[in-house]
Amino acid sequence: MLKSVLLLLFFTSSFFLPGCSTRHKINVEPVEIKPIHITIDVNIRVQKALDDFFDDIDNAEEETKEITP
């Protein structure tokens, strides 16, 4: 009786255990990293403010030149 139970356990475990074991093979290929070139122009507001400032100075100089004979 014990021998038949052990044989039954052996055969059932040998039937179900391989189904619990899974293997997956993953191929990892090399990743190519390319350089990124980014140019950002953030000086537009500063340039406009400087242009306005120097235009005011130029206009003031022109007015003083017109007044002086």
3D structure, described in words:
The protein is mainly α and 69 residues long. Helices cover 62% and strands 0% of the residues. It is built from two helices and no strands. It has helices at residues 2-20, 44-67. The protein is rod-shaped. The termini are far apart. The model has no long low-confidence stretch (mean pLDDT 76).
Features:
mainly alpha; about 70 residues; 2 helices
Calculate Rg over CA atoms: 43 Å
| Biggest sheet character | none
Ranges where pLDDT stays below 50 over 5 or more residues in a row are: none
Mean pLDDT: 76
Number of helices: 2
Structure, briefly:
The protein has 69 residues and is mainly alpha-helical.
Topology:
Elements: H1 2-20, H2 44-67
